[in-house]
Amino acid sequence: MSRLLRLYPRAWRDRYGDEFVELIREKPPTSLDTFDVMRGALDAWLHPQIVGQTPSRAPGGARLARLARAGAIAGGGLWIAGGLAMNSLPIDPDLGYKNSGMAVLVIVAAMVVTALAALATAGLPAVSRYAGIAALAILLGAVLTAMPWPVLIIGFFGYILATAAFGAILALWAGHAVGGLLAIAALVLSSMNTEDERALLTIPIGLAWIAVGALAFRRAPAATRA
Amino acid sequence: MNQPFGELGRFAEPSLYILVSLSGGPKHGYAIMTDVEEISGAPMGPGTLYGALARLERRGLIEALEPEDRRRPYRLTGLGATTLQAQLESLNGFVRTGLARLDGTAS
Asked: How does pLDDT run across A2-58, given as a tens digit for each residue?
């Protein structure tokens, strides 16, 4: 947990670090507490409360929105590129299946980039706090997908479920209808198969992320349930 | 919730719990967590606790006392007590209105 403390800005650690570590020592954290600390660290960067902590190092709302938009569009593009590359690969006659290492790397990169875009989105003040939890789950799913079998499959389906939840939150809480498209595309992705044309099921989620990036933050979110 | 709680965003509710906890006397982080869990029936995570403490301190509603070992107690300021009083009276009015309307519906 003290490693997680490093996620906080230096000024915050200087002010609260000792007592925070003492609190953790007295009450060992649960896994939910770990998420809570990660959200707290993100908040400390986004909304500095310490006198002397310069907010310029923390991305403001407009910058976060630009990051979210750029990440969602770039990640969506990577999803499409990864699926197309996967689909075009021949079956290796010696292996009996596709040697799809590079295409998989592109897809994992797409997952990580879109997860970071979701995290940036969740940092915006007008988006539900549940979006932050879903964004962390998306990132966890992306990281686990880079692990060996069978962890990767857990990560992949974790990414799908978390992305569907994130899309639903965007649609229902923040008033971005395009979030519903993302949720549906994520569920469609669950039928993806790297060995046949179902590799192209990465295209809907790629397009959905691009749509989220292009449309979701052209206007201020309608609802605030922070 | 009314100002200044409205501007606390997702920390408004935890902040109210913390102020109520400190209205019983100064407490350090762990004691606040334990007390808030008793008051609300739900645990408060360490990230949420310190996010709210930082906001309350910055707004002058609480102040830090000298550390005891590595624990640092906090206490309510005069402004914090006044703000809490106003907030609880507002909530009390809200509760009374709601209960009165429920009674009217039931009869």
From this structure: 677 888 888 898 899 999 999 988 888 888 888 888 888 888 887 777 765 554 444
By the 8 A CB rule, do A104 and A89 touch?
no
What ipTM goes with this model?
Answer: 0.84
Q: Which residues of A are less than 8 Å from B28 in CB distance?
A: 19
B29 touches chain A (CB under 8 A): yes
Structure tokens at A192: 């993806």
Please tell me the distance from the alpha carbon of residue B34 to that of residue B75, in angstroms, as a whole number: 16
Q: How far apart are CA A116 and CA A66, in angstroms?
A: 12
**Residue B60 C-beta-side C-alpha neighbours within 13 Å:** 3
Residue of A nearest to B6 (CA): A226
A19–chain B Cβ distance below 8 A for any pair: yes
With an 8 Å Cβ cutoff, are B58 and A51 in contact? yes
Count Cβ atoms below 10 Å from residue A82 Cβ, excluding itself.
26
Give dist(CA A118, CA A135) in Å, integer.
Answer: 5
CB nearest B33 (choices: A27, A37, A51): A27
Closest CA to B64 of A91, A152, A16: A16
Cα-based angle A103, A106, A112 (whole degrees, multiple of 5): 145
A4 → chain B, closest CA residue: B47
Rounded CA gap, B49 and A43, in Å?
A: 12
Tell whether B33 lies on the interface with A, counting CB pairs under 8 A.
yes
Residue with tokens 């192209």: A200
